[in-house]
Design goal:
It is a single chain. The protein is mainly beta and 104 residues long. The chain is built from one helix and eight strands.
Amino acid sequence: MALYEQLPGSLSISIVQGDEFATVVDFDINMSGYDTNAEIYSLVDGSVIFTMTTSFVSVGTVNISMTETETGNLSVGTYGWRLQWLAPGSVTRTALTGLLEVKA
């Protein structure tokens, strides 16, 4: 019997509280008409702590960012984070997940 898994990629991030953060992720697909969302959430109860800014650099490349003020408002500690996309036709997919560590 064949097994098919559709699991998100893993990308853990460490940042310094109060520093600007930005990274670019290339999905190597045409994402015309897609929307993206990146969230930081509590590992204790799953509640969303903060929504990061996402923008398309090109049709398959997404920039994820936070300002100095935004990272400064995060408490030192470890959180979960995820990047989701909404494809045309209202298809939601979690593309990346990982830990986000905020250091002093």
